[in-house]
Amino acid sequence: MFSVEQLQAFVTTVEVGSFSAAARHLSKAQSVVSQHIINLEIDCNATLFERTGRYPQLTDAGKKLLPQAMALLNQHQRLTNSVLALNDQIPREITIALDEGIPLKIIASAIAELQTKYPNVSLEFLSASSLDIIDMLKSEKPLTGIIFSELNIPSDLDYECLGSVQFDLYIAKSHPLAKQGCKNIDGLRLYRQLLIRSRNTQTSSFQLKISPDVWYADNYFVLLELAIQGYGWCLLPNHVAIEDVEKGNLIKLPIEFEKMGWLANVDILQHQRHSNLEVFKVLRSLLRNVL
Protein backbone atom coordinates (compact mmCIF):
# COMPACT_ATOMS: atom_id res chain seq x y z
CA MET A 1 0.00 0.00 0.00
CA PHE A 2 1.28 3.46 -0.85
CA SER A 3 2.67 5.79 1.83
CA VAL A 4 2.50 9.51 2.59
CA GLU A 5 6.18 9.79 1.59
CA GLN A 6 5.39 8.31 -1.83
CA LEU A 7 2.53 10.75 -2.37
CA GLN A 8 4.70 13.68 -1.25
CA ALA A 9 7.39 12.69 -3.75
CA PHE A 10 4.78 12.35 -6.51
CA VAL A 11 2.98 15.65 -5.86
CA THR A 12 6.18 17.63 -5.26
CA THR A 13 7.67 16.36 -8.52
CA VAL A 14 4.60 17.61 -10.36
CA GLU A 15 4.72 20.98 -8.59
CA VAL A 16 8.44 21.70 -9.11
CA GLY A 17 8.88 19.95 -12.46
CA SER A 18 11.64 17.37 -11.95
CA PHE A 19 12.85 14.59 -9.68
CA SER A 20 16.02 16.51 -8.76
CA ALA A 21 14.08 19.67 -7.86
CA ALA A 22 11.66 17.58 -5.79
CA ALA A 23 14.59 16.04 -3.94
CA ARG A 24 15.98 19.47 -3.11
CA HIS A 25 12.56 20.68 -1.98
CA LEU A 26 12.05 17.65 0.27
CA SER A 27 15.69 17.62 1.50
CA LYS A 28 16.14 14.05 0.29
CA ALA A 29 18.49 12.30 -2.11
CA GLN A 30 17.21 12.14 -5.68
CA SER A 31 17.45 8.35 -5.58
CA VAL A 32 15.07 8.32 -2.59
CA VAL A 33 12.49 10.45 -4.38
CA SER A 34 12.78 8.36 -7.56
CA GLN A 35 12.36 5.13 -5.58
CA HIS A 36 9.29 6.50 -3.77
CA ILE A 37 7.67 7.21 -7.14
CA ILE A 38 8.66 3.83 -8.58
CA ASN A 39 7.15 2.11 -5.53
CA LEU A 40 3.97 4.20 -5.91
CA GLU A 41 3.71 3.16 -9.55
CA ILE A 42 4.10 -0.48 -8.49
CA ASP A 43 1.40 -0.07 -5.82
CA CYS A 44 -0.93 1.62 -8.32
CA ASN A 45 -0.03 -0.82 -11.13
CA ALA A 46 0.29 2.17 -13.44
CA THR A 47 2.99 4.42 -14.93
CA LEU A 48 2.52 7.91 -13.50
CA PHE A 49 5.26 9.79 -15.38
CA GLU A 50 6.44 9.72 -18.98
CA ARG A 51 10.26 9.84 -18.63
CA THR A 52 11.44 10.02 -22.27
CA GLY A 53 11.87 13.81 -22.33
CA ARG A 54 14.13 16.13 -20.38
CA TYR A 55 11.48 16.60 -17.68
CA PRO A 56 8.95 14.04 -16.41
CA GLN A 57 5.43 14.50 -17.75
CA LEU A 58 2.27 13.13 -16.18
CA THR A 59 0.61 10.22 -17.93
CA ASP A 60 -3.18 9.96 -18.05
CA ALA A 61 -3.01 7.75 -14.95
CA GLY A 62 -0.85 10.35 -13.20
CA LYS A 63 -3.32 13.10 -14.06
CA LYS A 64 -6.16 11.05 -12.55
CA LEU A 65 -4.22 10.33 -9.37
CA LEU A 66 -2.88 13.88 -8.80
CA PRO A 67 -6.01 15.62 -7.39
CA GLN A 68 -6.70 12.69 -5.05
CA ALA A 69 -3.09 12.64 -3.86
CA MET A 70 -3.13 16.39 -3.22
CA ALA A 71 -6.39 16.13 -1.27
CA LEU A 72 -5.03 13.29 0.87
CA LEU A 73 -1.80 15.20 1.64
CA ASN A 74 -3.80 18.28 2.63
CA GLN A 75 -5.93 16.17 4.96
CA HIS A 76 -2.82 14.50 6.39
CA GLN A 77 -1.35 17.94 7.12
CA ARG A 78 -4.56 18.99 8.87
CA LEU A 79 -4.51 15.80 10.96
CA THR A 80 -0.87 16.43 11.90
CA ASN A 81 -1.64 20.00 12.95
CA SER A 82 -4.67 18.85 14.96
CA VAL A 83 -2.53 16.30 16.82
CA LEU A 84 0.11 18.94 17.59
CA ALA A 85 -2.61 21.23 18.95
CA LEU A 86 -4.17 18.63 21.28
CA ASN A 87 -2.08 19.73 24.25
CA ASP A 88 -1.86 23.42 23.39
CA GLN A 89 -3.16 25.75 26.08
CA ILE A 90 -4.25 29.36 25.69
CA PRO A 91 -1.15 31.11 24.34
CA ARG A 92 0.31 33.84 26.51
CA GLU A 93 0.85 36.07 23.49
CA ILE A 94 -1.07 36.42 20.22
CA THR A 95 0.19 38.35 17.23
CA ILE A 96 -2.26 40.12 14.93
CA ALA A 97 -0.68 41.05 11.60
CA LEU A 98 -2.69 43.58 9.60
CA ASP A 99 -2.20 44.74 6.04
CA GLU A 100 -1.72 48.48 6.45
CA GLY A 101 -4.25 49.05 3.67
CA ILE A 102 -6.97 47.73 6.00
CA PRO A 103 -8.23 50.31 8.54
CA LEU A 104 -7.05 49.49 12.06
CA LYS A 105 -10.19 51.01 13.57
CA ILE A 106 -12.29 48.12 12.25
CA ILE A 107 -10.69 45.72 14.71
CA ALA A 108 -10.61 48.08 17.72
CA SER A 109 -13.92 46.96 19.25
CA ALA A 110 -13.07 43.29 18.66
CA ILE A 111 -9.73 43.73 20.43
CA ALA A 112 -11.44 45.36 23.41
CA GLU A 113 -13.84 42.40 23.72
CA LEU A 114 -11.02 39.89 23.32
CA GLN A 115 -9.03 41.60 26.09
CA THR A 116 -12.04 41.46 28.40
CA LYS A 117 -12.54 37.74 27.72
CA TYR A 118 -8.83 36.83 27.91
CA PRO A 119 -7.20 39.44 30.19
CA ASN A 120 -3.97 37.44 30.58
CA VAL A 121 -3.26 37.17 26.86
CA SER A 122 -0.71 39.72 25.63
CA LEU A 123 -1.26 41.11 22.14
CA GLU A 124 1.34 42.09 19.55
CA PHE A 125 0.39 44.06 16.43
CA LEU A 126 2.34 43.99 13.18
CA SER A 127 1.84 45.82 9.90
CA ALA A 128 2.97 44.27 6.62
CA SER A 129 1.83 43.55 3.09
CA SER A 130 -0.68 40.75 2.64
CA LEU A 131 1.86 38.47 0.96
CA ASP A 132 4.41 39.03 3.74
CA ILE A 133 1.75 38.16 6.31
CA ILE A 134 1.05 34.87 4.51
CA ASP A 135 4.77 34.07 4.77
CA MET A 136 4.68 34.87 8.51
CA LEU A 137 1.81 32.45 9.02
CA LYS A 138 3.86 29.59 7.57
CA SER A 139 6.03 29.71 10.71
CA GLU A 140 3.11 28.27 12.77
CA LYS A 141 3.31 31.08 15.31
CA PRO A 142 0.06 31.83 17.24
CA LEU A 143 -0.70 34.56 14.74
CA THR A 144 -3.82 35.93 13.08
CA GLY A 145 -3.44 37.62 9.72
CA ILE A 146 -5.92 40.12 8.30
CA ILE A 147 -5.15 40.56 4.62
CA PHE A 148 -6.52 41.43 1.22
CA SER A 149 -7.65 38.20 -0.46
CA GLU A 150 -5.04 36.35 -2.50
CA LEU A 151 -5.68 33.65 -5.08
CA ASN A 152 -3.06 31.29 -3.69
CA ILE A 153 -3.47 30.52 0.01
CA PRO A 154 -1.27 27.69 1.41
CA SER A 155 -3.30 24.59 2.23
CA ASP A 156 -2.22 24.61 5.90
CA LEU A 157 -3.90 27.97 6.53
CA ASP A 158 -7.59 28.36 7.43
CA TYR A 159 -9.37 31.52 6.31
CA GLU A 160 -12.70 33.25 5.94
CA CYS A 161 -13.89 36.54 4.46
CA LEU A 162 -14.55 39.54 6.72
CA GLY A 163 -15.89 41.95 4.12
CA SER A 164 -14.31 44.36 1.64
CA VAL A 165 -12.46 47.67 1.21
CA GLN A 166 -13.04 50.11 -1.68
CA PHE A 167 -10.03 50.97 -3.91
CA ASP A 168 -9.73 53.72 -6.53
CA LEU A 169 -7.10 55.11 -8.89
CA TYR A 170 -5.31 58.23 -7.58
CA ILE A 171 -2.80 60.77 -8.88
CA ALA A 172 -1.39 64.12 -7.80
CA LYS A 173 -3.14 67.29 -8.98
CA SER A 174 0.09 68.25 -10.74
CA HIS A 175 0.26 65.02 -12.75
CA PRO A 176 -0.37 65.36 -16.53
CA LEU A 177 -3.24 62.87 -16.33
CA ALA A 178 -5.04 65.10 -13.83
CA LYS A 179 -5.76 67.61 -16.61
CA GLN A 180 -6.12 65.46 -19.70
CA GLY A 181 -7.84 62.49 -18.10
CA CYS A 182 -7.74 58.98 -19.46
CA LYS A 183 -10.13 57.37 -21.94
CA ASN A 184 -9.20 53.74 -21.23
CA ILE A 185 -6.65 51.46 -19.65
CA ASP A 186 -4.18 51.96 -22.51
CA GLY A 187 -3.73 55.56 -21.43
CA LEU A 188 -2.38 54.33 -18.10
CA ARG A 189 0.39 52.41 -19.84
CA LEU A 190 2.00 55.69 -20.90
CA TYR A 191 2.71 56.80 -17.32
CA ARG A 192 4.56 55.35 -14.37
CA GLN A 193 2.59 53.02 -12.12
CA LEU A 194 3.14 52.77 -8.36
CA LEU A 195 2.58 49.21 -7.22
CA ILE A 196 2.53 47.13 -4.03
CA ARG A 197 4.70 44.04 -3.71
CA SER A 198 6.07 41.99 -0.82
CA ARG A 199 9.57 42.19 0.62
CA ASN A 200 10.54 39.08 -1.34
CA THR A 201 9.28 40.78 -4.55
CA GLN A 202 5.98 38.90 -4.93
CA THR A 203 3.20 40.95 -6.51
CA SER A 204 -0.35 40.68 -5.21
CA SER A 205 -2.80 38.76 -7.37
CA PHE A 206 -5.20 41.73 -7.42
CA GLN A 207 -2.57 44.45 -8.02
CA LEU A 208 -2.02 44.10 -11.75
CA LYS A 209 1.04 45.50 -13.46
CA ILE A 210 -0.31 47.65 -16.28
CA SER A 211 2.47 50.10 -17.16
CA PRO A 212 5.96 49.04 -18.35
CA ASP A 213 7.35 51.73 -16.02
CA VAL A 214 6.76 50.64 -12.41
CA TRP A 215 8.02 51.74 -9.00
CA TYR A 216 7.37 49.39 -6.07
CA ALA A 217 6.72 49.74 -2.35
CA ASP A 218 5.66 47.29 0.36
CA ASN A 219 2.97 49.49 1.93
CA TYR A 220 0.22 51.82 0.81
CA PHE A 221 1.38 54.86 2.75
CA VAL A 222 4.65 54.91 0.80
CA LEU A 223 2.59 54.65 -2.42
CA LEU A 224 0.44 57.51 -1.17
CA GLU A 225 3.43 59.79 -0.62
CA LEU A 226 4.96 58.88 -3.99
CA ALA A 227 1.63 59.66 -5.68
CA ILE A 228 1.35 63.02 -3.86
CA GLN A 229 4.83 63.91 -5.11
CA GLY A 230 3.67 63.24 -8.67
CA TYR A 231 5.82 60.20 -9.39
CA GLY A 232 2.98 58.15 -10.85
CA TRP A 233 -0.56 56.79 -10.54
CA CYS A 234 -1.67 54.02 -8.21
CA LEU A 235 -4.53 52.07 -6.69
CA LEU A 236 -5.14 53.04 -3.07
CA PRO A 237 -7.73 52.08 -0.46
CA ASN A 238 -10.10 55.04 -0.23
CA HIS A 239 -9.62 55.41 3.53
CA VAL A 240 -5.84 55.82 2.98
CA ALA A 241 -6.30 58.51 0.33
CA ILE A 242 -9.27 60.47 1.68
CA GLU A 243 -7.42 62.94 3.92
CA ASP A 244 -5.08 64.04 1.13
CA VAL A 245 -7.98 64.21 -1.31
CA GLU A 246 -9.76 66.57 1.08
CA LYS A 247 -6.57 68.65 1.41
CA GLY A 248 -6.27 68.88 -2.36
CA ASN A 249 -2.99 66.97 -2.53
CA LEU A 250 -4.48 64.07 -4.44
CA ILE A 251 -7.38 63.41 -6.80
CA LYS A 252 -9.18 60.41 -8.19
CA LEU A 253 -7.93 59.78 -11.70
CA PRO A 254 -10.34 61.32 -14.26
CA ILE A 255 -11.23 58.40 -16.50
CA GLU A 256 -14.13 57.53 -18.79
CA PHE A 257 -14.34 54.08 -17.24
CA GLU A 258 -15.38 55.51 -13.87
CA LYS A 259 -15.55 52.20 -12.04
CA MET A 260 -11.96 51.07 -12.56
CA GLY A 261 -11.59 50.92 -8.81
CA TRP A 262 -12.97 47.89 -7.04
CA LEU A 263 -13.90 46.27 -3.77
CA ALA A 264 -11.04 44.13 -2.44
CA ASN A 265 -12.12 41.28 -0.18
CA VAL A 266 -10.54 41.13 3.27
CA ASP A 267 -9.75 37.73 4.80
CA ILE A 268 -8.74 36.54 8.25
CA LEU A 269 -6.12 33.76 8.22
CA GLN A 270 -4.85 31.42 10.93
CA HIS A 271 -2.59 28.38 10.83
CA GLN A 272 -4.39 25.04 11.18
CA ARG A 273 -2.36 24.25 14.29
CA HIS A 274 -3.99 27.15 16.15
CA SER A 275 -7.28 27.85 14.36
CA ASN A 276 -9.26 25.40 16.52
CA LEU A 277 -8.09 26.89 19.83
CA GLU A 278 -10.95 28.65 21.58
CA VAL A 279 -9.21 32.04 21.72
CA PHE A 280 -8.75 32.04 17.94
CA LYS A 281 -12.34 30.96 17.36
CA VAL A 282 -13.48 33.85 19.57
CA LEU A 283 -11.28 36.31 17.67
CA ARG A 284 -12.71 35.15 14.34
CA SER A 285 -16.23 35.49 15.70
CA LEU A 286 -15.56 39.04 16.95
CA LEU A 287 -14.11 40.12 13.61
CA ARG A 288 -16.76 38.45 11.47
CA ASN A 289 -18.60 40.94 9.20
CA VAL A 290 -16.76 43.97 10.64
CA LEU A 291 -16.51 45.31 7.10
UniProtKB/TrEMBL annotation:
* Alphabetically ordered keywords of this record: DNA-binding, Transcription, Transcription regulation
Q: Which family does it belong to?
A: Belongs to the LysR transcriptional regulatory family.
Checking SUPFAM superfamilies in the record gives:
Periplasmic binding protein-like II, Winged helix' DNA-binding domain
Q: Which InterPro entries match?
A: LysR_HTH_N (IPR000847), LysR_subst-bd (IPR005119), WH-like_DNA-bd_sf (IPR036388), WH_DNA-bd_sf (IPR036390)
Please identify the protein, giving its name as recorded. Answer: LysR family transcriptional regulator
Q: Where is the HTH lysR-type domain?
A: 2-59
Gene3D superfamilies, alphabetically?
3.40.190.290, Winged helix-like DNA-binding domain superfamily/Winged helix DNA-binding domain
Q: Which PANTHER family match?
A: HTH-TYPE TRANSCRIPTIONAL REGULATOR, LYSR FAMILY TRANSCRIPTIONAL REGULATOR
Source organism of this protein record: Marinomonas colpomeniae
